[in-house]
Amino acid sequence: MTLFDVYPLFDINIVKGRGCSVWDDKGQEYLDLYGGHAVISIGHCHPHYVEKLTEQLNALGFYSNSVVNTLQRQLAERLGKACGYDDYQLFLINSGAEANENALKLASFKTGRTRVLSASKAFHGRTSLAVEATDNPKIIAPINANNHVTYLPLNDLDAWEHELAKGDVCACIIECIQGVGGIKLATEEFAKGLQAACKKYGAVLICDEIQCGYGRSGKFFAHQWLGIRPDLITVAKGIGNGFPMGAVLISPDFKPEYGQLGTTFGGNHLACAAALAVLDVIESEHLVDNAHEAGEYLMAKLKELQTTEKRITDVRGRGLMIGIDLDIPHKALRQNLVYTQHCFTGCASTNILRLLPPLCFTKSMADDFIGRLKKAFAEI
Length: 380
What we know:
Layout: E1 14-18, E2 21-24, E3 29-32, H1 35-38, H2 47-59, H3 70-83, E4 89-93, H4 96-111, E5 115-119, H5 128-132, E6 149-152, H6 157-164, E7 169-174, H7 188-201, E8 204-208, E9 232-235, E10 246-250, H8 269-284, H9 287-306, E11 312-318, E12 321-326, H10 331-339, E13 343-344, E14 346-348, E15 352-355, H11 363-379
Parallel strand pairs: 3-13, 5-6, 5-7, 7-8, 8-9
Antiparallel strand pairs: 1-2, 2-3, 4-10, 9-10, 11-12, 12-15, 14-15
Helix pairs in contact: 2-8, 3-8, 6-7, 9-11, 10-11
């Protein structure tokens, strides 16, 4: 049997990680500004994280959701306090796509409606309704193209209100910082206006915080920069620092019913141990504040570089979620960064570098990256 070949790969075998560095099987160290696609929140192989997962695995790795799991209750209490939503309810699953599927399902249960409004260039996952809410026809199979979703420009409040006024919208789902869409930020005016319009027309507001949440923006959630309080919040990626996990934070306006939602693996003992360890480190090492401070520093350095490096046309983002627009395709630059400068970054579209380092990223690492980026520009 061979692997189903759907991933264009760098010819590098990463075998070890510590903090914001990874190493390949030849012993080469790389500075990691990709974080496994924003998954690594507290740093690779943090000792507290390793200790807590090992401890839990030696006790019990898994049992079903048919019994009490006190780790789930501890996580709900800790997460509520950490993010400021202690009056919300928590449903635990396995991934971001699954989080969005369940959020959209809850919205439809509550409203009795089936239409969804999503933003142009949105990415919400690759499963049934999540992929239909994703603005990329190349990954929407015919079986998923069920005409549930209308795509609208981010920040065009009039367009969203026009559709909401039709009275058939189940939910509006937005990333307050678009990831795959190229680090495009929702404005405060748009977010507040959309929240008010959702309330007026009886639709549910979902904030997809899968990539931009969990401290990455310099607040626990990116929407907290915008002064809104969504009905449903979806999280994954950074919640488990690499352990597969997702969750939906659910407003008190939603009343659960037995059997309404379900999962086999979601919220298992090992996953909860991982998530609790992540919160321990985020709190003890003040990583949300660090994401803000280190991110502001890195963006300032990038904007300074923009004044001399004309191939940079824009720098934008919040915290440690940064987009660098280029006037050339990013491929050659990323190849040089990886193979010559030994530095991983992400990308978006054909010409945007996307920076998503672990939240323990430092100002000295930012300086190091700027030096490597300068060399890469000089060599391509």
